[in-house]
Design goal:
The structure holds 2 protein chains of 2 kinds. By secondary structure, chain A is of the alpha/beta class. Chain A has 13 helices and 14 strands. Chain B has helices at residues 38-63, 77-86, 100-105, 110-118, 143-155, 174-186, 205-208, 233-246, 276-283, 287-297, 303-326, 332-336, 344-356, and strands spanning 17-18, 92-94, 162-167, 190-196, 199-200, 203-204, 225-229, 252-257. In chain B, helix 1 (38-63) packs across helix 11. The chains are: A alpha/beta, B alpha/beta.
Chain lengths: 321, 366
């Protein structure tokens, strides 16, 4: 069926809840209201208030109780209503979710999927447009995924719900309803830790994820370029093999993400290429990201979020070098 | 339910409720504040009308795509106008994200608010004498700031009191408790207004906490508290005024019982979770309606005055909207306000953007 990312995630959550009776959802406005983006719409009617929990308004409480639920044998899916609000639960995630397994030598495991909308471009209020992936990936111990298509969103969610690890599941708000795609009705997995080559090519490699995937695809199509586009899908653990294999083939690299440039995912990828494939490069790597400053209020976001022109110029720079 | 049978009571608390003017506009003389005259009540009434008119204007701009997502104050005018009217000139306020009425009473030039709600941080650069911080979107995160700001007033030997606002949902956040606790320990000159509008987006007050009142949360921090009719502007005024006067001895928590008559924000659809009949009940308790009745009964208000006031407000609002629409965005400004200086790395990003005209290509591509 042709569905958008919201419907795909809703379907994955429903299938996951049918498959495993220990899967419970908790968060602000996820039940009666169906979530502010409607990702959990109808699930309270289907599974009841015991499994779809409208919580008090407290993000640290949501993340912390989810950790306790996971210790107690459940598979909680806590939602932070927006990535900016999730920082109130940051301590629980980095101090506890990321560390429980290692500090208990795996005698305590935390199967949980932390969902939150991320990134901007949709003219929302302050703290509603953050791209926080680096914070969660940097720590180690937290799996970080970010789909860019309905198909990947559903498959990654199914996979995350079958894992025994805390997964930070980042959902780009801008892509929730941007397009529909053929998605199977039944459960299927998209592997975690594996990037997807969304377009094969030999002229250059463009590594990207999240909101920048459709932008990059458009630019490549308009330029009629033989570019290889890699959608990371999983940010941590990084699929280094896929990146290096492509770089060895093309010798030219652009890395594009919406998060601000400094100390971002692009820096990590760039460093790994420099360490392991620098002699394969025919041109310096070019990164595309937002300016190194906090996300602005909507009036200025069109000047902040990397646009097609910025991607296009980065490609030109790499191709002309 | 008695859980433990104890020999000695070690604590008991009581939350008192205050109402001065009831739904029909009748004042209770025993509770009427002695520092307020009818002129002051008329002024607060006008400000409630002003706040409601401002609110309607932003909503209409938002619906036309000329403002960003907005959290309306409809129904909560008395809580905001009453508390702000009790503040003295040098007192400060720390709002959440719905307290537009407080800014209005504090004399913000309205164009700043319209610039902000058009989506520009320049709207936060309003004159300092407004005495408030910009809105805080992450719920309750502003509360510790309020406690720290109150501490700083005393530290500097100032007499100023800080009035902080938080919603019913916000009282579930750790930051709310932490702020109260700090203020209690420090005996900081802080007044906490809990604007209890019964709804945290879709979650009703009864599902937010098992606590019988929100005011009583103050007991755990050793702070006095009171619950007031948040739709009675005189009661809110009186409670806030007393709390400000007592602030030299420490903080107070005031729970204002009001109601979110409209939407949470323009992105919200309350028909998903709230029966319309509930809203109807609260329409009869409208904070503006009852003061109108009170003033009319005293012969201090009539249709003509009402029309004149509404016309004045409409003119002032339209003029402010016009000013706000003349505001011109300048993306280079963003780079100048990240630090007290512009680091080289950031300057390079700006130069790069200017040189490559990134900002001209927002529609994309070649």
């Amino acid at each position: 069926m042709q569905i958008n990312m919201v419907t795909a995630l809703n379907s994955a959550l429903e299938l996951g809840m049918r498959e495993n009776e220990n899967v419970v959802l908790l968060g602000e406005d996820i039940g009666r209201d169906g979530g502010v983006f409607r990702v959990t719409d109808g699930l309270m009617d289907k599974f009841g208030e015991k499994r779809v929990i409208d919580t008090p308004l407290a993000e640290s409480g949501i993340m912390g109780t989810a950790i306790g639920m996971a210790i107690g044998g459940l598979h909680p899916v806590p939602e932070a209503q927006f990535a900016g609000f999730m920082f109130l639960g940051f301590s629980q995630l980095v101090n506890h979710a990321a560390r429980y397994r290692s500090r208990s030598r795996s005698t305590i495991q935390l199967p949980m999927v932390v969902r939150t909308p991320v990134s901007g471009g949709v003219r929302t209020l302050e703290h509603h447009s953050e791209s926080p992936e680096t914070y969660y990936a940097h720590m180690g111990g937290l799996i970080v995924v970010e789909p860019s298509t309905p198909y990947d969103a559903k498959g990654l969610m199914i996979k995350a719900l079958r894992m025994n690890d805390p997964v930070i599941f980042l959902e780009p708000t801008k892509l929730y309803r941007l397009f529909k795609q053929e998605v199977p009705d039944e459960a299927y997995e998209v592997p975690i830790g594996k990037a997807s080559v969304v377009r094969e090519g030999s002229a250059l490699t463009i590594v990207t994820y999240g909101t920048m995937v459709p932008v990059v695809k458009d630019v490549v199509a308009k330029k009629n370029l033989d570019a290889e586009i890699i959608d990371l899908r999983t940010i941590n653990p990084l699929d280094e093999d896929a990146i290096l294999a492509s770089v060895k083939k093309t010798g030219r690299v652009v890395i594009a993400h919406e998060a601000s440039l400094s100390f971002g995912v692009g820096a990590e990828i760039s460093a790994r290429i420099a360490e392991k494939a620098i002699f394969e490069l025919d041109a310096p790597i070019v990164r595309v990201g937002s300016p190194s400053m906090p996300y602005p209020f909507p009036g200025y976001e069109k000047f902040y979020v990397p646009n097609a022109l910025k991607v296009s110029q980065a490609i030109d720079k790499v191709m002309e070098a | 339910m008695q859980v433990f049978i104890l020999e000695t009571s070690v604590f008991s608390g009581e939350v008192k409720y205050l109402q001065v003017i009831d739904e029909n506009g009748n004042a209770d003389p025993a509770r009427f504040p002695n520092d307020i005259d009818d002129a002051k009540i008329a002024e607060m009434y006008k400000n409630m009308l002003y706040a409601r008119a401002f609110d309607a204007k932003v909503l209409s701009l938002q619906r036309q795509g000329r403002a960003v997502t907005y959290a309306p104050l409809l129904g909560e005018e008395a809580t905001q106008i009453g508390s702000a009217s009790a503040m003295r000139k040098d007192d400060l306020f720390v709002p959440a994200f719905r307290q537009h009425g407080v800014y209005i009473v504090r004399g913000i030039p309205l164009e700043y608010m319209f610039i902000y709600w058009r989506g520009y941080e320049e709207g936060n650069a309003y004159p300092k004498n407004v005495g408030g911080t910009p809105i805080a979107v992450p719920v309750a995160t502003q509360m510790p700031h309020a406690a720290g700001l109150a501490f700083a007033q005393r530290y500097a030997g100032k007499d100023a009191v800080v009035v902080a606002y938080v919603g019913d949902g916000g009282t579930s956040e750790g930051d709310f408790y932490e702020a109260m606790n700090f203020a209690g320990v420090w005996r900081a000159p802080l007044v906490i207004i809990i604007e209890n509008n019964e709804w945290a987006i879709s979650v009703p007050r009864k599902n937010q906490t098992a606590s019988q009142t929100l005011a009583q949360k103050a007991f755990a921090a050793g702070i006095p508290c009171v619950q007031v009719d948040g739709n009675d502007v005189v009661a809110v005024y009186k409670a806030t005024k007393e709390a400000i006067e007592n602030a030299k001895y420490g903080p107070t928590v005031i729970e204002c019982m009001t109601y979110r008559m409209g939407i949470h924000t323009t992105a919200d659809d309350p028909t998903k979770y709230r029966p319309d009949a509930d809203v109807e009940i609260w329409k009869a308790r409208d904070p503006i309606l009852r003061i109108r009745k009170y003033l009319e009964a005293k012969g201090l208000w009539n249709d003509e005055l009402d029309k004149k006031t509404l016309d004045e407000h409409a003119k002032a609002i339209d003029a402010a909207v016009e000013k706000a629409e003349q505001f011109k965005e300048d993306p280079t400004v963003m780079f100048k306000h990240v630090y007290s200086f512009v680091p080289q790395v950031l300057q390079n990003e700006l130069d790069d953007a200017l040189k490559n005209n990134f900002w001209q290509g927002e529609e994309g591509g070649e």
